[in-house]
Design brief:
This protein has 318 residues and is mostly helical. It has 14 helices and 2 strands; from the N terminus they run H-H-H-H-H-H-H-E-E-H-H-H-H-H-H-H. The protein folds into 2 domains: 113 residues, Tyrosine recombinase, N-terminal domain (DNA polymerase, domain 1), CATH 1.10.150.130; 179 residues, hpI Integrase, Chain A (Orthogonal Bundle).
């Protein structure tokens, strides 16, 4: 019996590794996605071992999955509370994806659709109003090169809806300020063209015009020890430093919203939709793989639609 269990264990473990290789090589999934899937699937495999359940592919059935989900619901998180429903859902998503891949490769396993996903409260989108955006964009002091850099960063964020990781990876030789556009490779290895507003391009031009260095990164640090031989990557701003910078300016102007790079991304998308942009175009500009991800922003614009309905519906007579 022990030998059989060992064979079963190596079977599911081996297929898990092959699945993760598939995500990396064929799907082009990000290292973070692969790390998370590895964590969720290894937790499932570890639980099977603790429960002394044979770990062959055919042993994954509805009852086993149900018991695993009961286990997850009572599991403690790092803060001492129970694992959130969203995190529990990620385990189910990872299992479903694994099963879909197995079926695609002709293994007879549990149908993925038999694993229900938990209902999770709709994601609340935080965004800034037009007035709040203006105040934030005008908050840096322009008397220093650091202030001009921060101003350019804020303008680029609101002009493009970039993720903070995408913004900090930018190199200045890749930015076409005349055409006001550049290409990036975003989440999941998806390439897209990004467009700059006239104002964002002007502030980038002003900031770069004051630079007297040879460093490749578009945005660099201007404090701390800097030697002529300092490597490019040591000068590049990090996502964390940009997050801290935005929080600093949000506190300075006493914004009621917890401003982050992602809140600026939300503000960019919301501004486009409320101005009449179609959701497919916004999806492309944000670099979303699925339209369902972009649709979270339509809830924000529902208020505007309701106001239009109230103002104009039934006003045309009989």
């Amino acid at each position: 019996m022990a030998d059989t269990a060992q064979v079963s264990q190596s079977e599911i473990g081996k297929k898990t590794e092959e699945f993760l290789d598939y995500l990396q090589v064929e799907r082009g999934s990000s290292p973070l996605t692969i790390r998370n899937y590895r964590h969720y699937l290894n937790r499932f495999i570890g639980w099977l071992g603790v429960e002394h359940i044979h770990q062959g592919l055919s042993d994954i059935n509805s009852e086993i999955v149900r018991r695993f989900r009961v286990y997850l619901s009572g599991l403690s998180d790092r803060k001492g509370g129970t694992l959130g429903r969203k995190t529990q859902g990620y385990h189910a998503i990872a299992l479903r994806s694994f099963l879909k891949w197995l079926i695609k490769n002709d293994y007879k396993v549990l149908a993925p659709e038999k694993i229900d996903l938990p209902k999770i409260p709709e994601r609340q989108v935080k965004f800034l109003s037009g007035d709040q955006v203006d105040r934030l964009l005008n908050s840096p002091s322009l008397s220093t090169i650091q202030g001009k850099r921060d101003k350019a960063i804020l303008e680029v964020f609101f002009s493009t809806g970039l993720r903070v990781s995408e913004l900090t990876k930018l190199d200045r030789d890749k930015i076409d300020l005349d055409r006001r556009e550049f290409g990036i490779v975003g989440k999941g290895g998806r390439a897209r063209v990004v467009f700059l507003s006239t104002r964002a391009a002007e502030w980038l031009h002003k900031y770069l015009g004051e630079r007297r260095d040879h460093y490749k990164p578009l945005f660099i640090r201007h404090k701390g020890k800097v030697e002529p031989t300092t490597a490019d990557e040591k000068m590049r701003l990090t996502p964390r430093s940009v997050q801290r910078m935005i929080k600093k300016y949000a506190r300075k102007i006493k914004l009621p919203v917890d401003a982050t790079p992602h809140v600026l991304r939300h503000s960019f998308a919301t501004d486009l939709l409320m101005a009449g942009a179609d959701i497919r175009s916004v999806q492309e500009m944000l670099g979303h793989k699925n339209i369902s991800t972009t649709q979270i922003y339509t809830h924000v614009t529902n208020k505007q639609l309701r106001e239009v309905h109230s103002a104009f519906h039934g006003k045309g007579g009989n």
